[in-house]
Amino acid sequence: MRSRWTETDIPDQSGRTVLITGANSGLGLRSAKVLAAKGARVVLACRSRARGEAVLRMVPGARLILLDLADLAAVRQAAAQVRELTGDSLDILMNNAGVMATPKAFTEDGFELQFATNHLGHAALTWLLMPALRGGRNARVVTLSSLAARGATRGRGFDLGDPNFRLGRYNPALAYSRSKLANQVFALELDRRLRAAGEDIVSAAAHPGYTTTGLTTAMAHSYANPVLRAGMLAGSRIGDLLAQNVDIGALPQLYAATAPEVNGGDYVGPGGPGGLRGHPTFTAPLTPALDQRTGAELWELTEKLTGVTPDPT
After folding, report:
1. What is the pLDDT of residues 152-201, one digit of tens each?
2. Distances, alpha carbon 290 to alpha carbons 58, 176, 188, 297, 312, in Å
3. Distance in angstroms (rounded) separating the CA atoms of residues 298 and 153
4. Using an 8 Å Cβ cutoff, are 150 and 286 in contact?
5. Global pTM?
6. What would the pLDDT profile of 34-61 be if each residue is shown by its tens digit?
7. Nearest to 4 by CA among 272, 207, 284, 276
8. For this structure, is 176 an active site residue?
9. If 0-12 CB within 10 Å is exposed, 13-18 middle and 19+ buried, where does residue 2 land?
10. Looking at 170, 176, 210, 255, which residue is catalytic?
């Protein structure tokens, strides 16, 4: 890896089809713009039609698919549309979308909102799109984790016995940490299963470090208490002043999606101190992601909760 890898190092993506979840803002939008400029055919997967259609004007040749990751029926519908749209030929799936530290809420399917959106929806989408990925060329799945995943390795930790906080007291930050650790665990378990099945699809993970993505602002607006919301917005603005911009923050996931030297099971993040900022580099996954038993337990739990048949089996 070059010490200062940038988007100019991305190989030509002409003829490749890319699906990016959460492509209407932040890291997803930046990734869509960059990959489209490199010749890729980009499919934008967005929850809001209005926001998605606004982004279409920013990404040449892009197509729009509506996707609500918190609704498993919507995930199934979107996956079917993607398979039809791409003719079962998808080269890159970028599991980018996410929500962060929201108030306690449950989806229509009965799952804690962050776990459902960040992990369950993406896992189900990945499994449902595996036939299209097999039809792609040198296909890759890139799943976005976060430095916040470290928070799920301490204290109450990564509790697969109570993923929806039905038993323990709800903590928004811990719920986010667990969901982002689940992303990392899933990405590496997917890699193990793909290799065991003899597949040539690459599953890698990435994180953006400390980047201003719009998530903290969205988090603040999700709280009804006006005093709490105002305090969070103020903290978000201060944090954004210290964070790196999205152009740099998107580089790890772009590297994971396009660099020839990326292998299955790799984890890419900023190379600066603490992984907070800087150009992309390979970094060590967290211990639970490296643990095969944890990976298998999450895989089986995800199958049970989503009702989607894992692929590869």
Report:
1. 998 667 899 999 999 989 999 999 999 999 999 999 999 999 999 999 99
2. 38, 20, 7, 13, 19
3. 15
4. yes
5. 0.91
6. 999 999 999 999 999 999 999 999 999 9
7. 272
8. yes
9. exposed
10. 176
